[in-house]
From TrEMBL:
Keyword Chaperone: yes
Protein known as: 10 kDa heat shock protein, mitochondrial
Chaperone keyword on record: yes
Gene that encodes the chain: Dere\GG21544
GO terms for MF: ATP binding; metal ion binding; protein folding chaperone; protein-folding chaperone binding; unfolded protein binding
GO cellular component, one term: mitochondrial matrix
HAMAP family listed in its UniProt record: CH10
InterPro entries with a match to the protein in the record: Chaperonin_GroES, Chaperonin_GroES_sf, GroES-like_sf
Alphabetical list of Pfam families matching this protein: Cpn10 (PF00166)
SMART domains the record matches: Cpn10
Keywords: Chaperone
CDD domains reported for this sequence: cpn10
Family: Belongs to the GroES chaperonin family.
Length: 102
């Protein structure tokens, strides 16, 4: 069985987000250690679940973001997802996302 993940489909109201890369060099070219650089609080929506279940009946409630949207994230939270492409992916619930950026 191949260890490469081809597609991730989040469950219910969860959203898979790729955090933007943090710059680790200053304008003068000095390299900063990763521990001293704060986390990037913006990300790109990579995959979206079908939405939370509708308590009034069958089906799901729609999600407020779609793939390709830029969003503002909380500093802490989410579930880190490791994939083979060395980028940082995090799973959040829709209610954890702070804002949609345009």
């Amino acid at each position: 069985m191949s260890s490469v993940i081809k597609k991730v489909i989040p469950m219910l109201d969860r959203i898979l987000i790729q955090r933007f890369e943090v710059k680790t060099t200053t304008a003068g070219g000095i390299l900063l250690p990763e521990e001293s650089v704060p986390k990037e609080m913006q990300g790109l929506v990579v995959a979206v679940g079908p939405g939370a279940r509708n308590p009034a009946g069958a089906g799901h409630l729609s999600v407020g973001v779609k793939e390709g949207d830029r969003v503002l994230l909380p500093k802490y939270g989410g579930t880190k997802v490791d994939m083979d492409d060395k980028r940082e992916y995090v799973l959040f619930r829709e209610s954890d996302i702070l804002a949609k950026l345009e």
